């Protein structure tokens, strides 16, 4: 078990058992020390756990948990790609998509659930540039989708 997986366990979290691809694309691609991770929805073993749209009445903590689950799926793909999460040297960029209506104004706060996990796990190396937007739909009507670009050794 990697040091990062130990940190996850200490936080009461674990990597999902799988991270299925839904269409004709790669879950990840490596290039010159960079790992490009395709967007992952808030699913566990192929089943979405939070559905959209997120509304102002949706509890922010639940929405952030959805974003955190997306990040856990990204970490699963990272381990699959690199063999160990300990090879991650930096989280460079995170992109977040929140399934919400046009009047929802706190999409970036939802994506903090993913950002916070990366920062808690990787410390300063987890600090990243980010985009967070609201969209009218996501695959399987998921509440949140997150992608990322990481550097590795």
Automatic annotation (TrEMBL):
Gene3D superfamilies in UniProt: RutC-like
Highest taxon of source: Bacteria
SUPFAM superfamilies: YjgF-like (SSF55298)
Domain Endoribonuclease L-PSP/chorismate mutase-like: 5-143
Name of protein: Enamine deaminase RidA, house cleaning of reactive enamine intermediates, YjgF/YER057c/UK114 family
Organism: Loktanella salsilacus
């Amino acid at each position: 078990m990697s040091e990062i997986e130990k940190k996850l366990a200490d936080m009461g979290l674990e990597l999902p058992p799988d991270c299925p691809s839904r269409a004709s694309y790669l879950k990840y691609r490596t290039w010159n020390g960079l790992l490009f991770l395709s967007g992952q929805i808030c699913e566990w073993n192929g089943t979405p756990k939070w559905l959209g749209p997120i509304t102002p009445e949706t509890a922010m903590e639940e929405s952030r948990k959805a974003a955190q689950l997306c990040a856990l799926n990204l970490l699963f793909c990272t381990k699959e790609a690199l063999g160990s999460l300990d090879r991650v040297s930096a989280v460079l960029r995170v992109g977040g998509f929140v399934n919400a209506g046009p009047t929802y104004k706190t999409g970036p706060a939802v994506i903090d659930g993913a950002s916070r996990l990366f920062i808690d796990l990787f410390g300063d190396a987890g600090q990243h540039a980010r985009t967070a937007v609201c969209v009218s739909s996501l695959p399987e009507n998921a509440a949140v989708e997150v992608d990322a670009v990481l550097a590795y050794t």
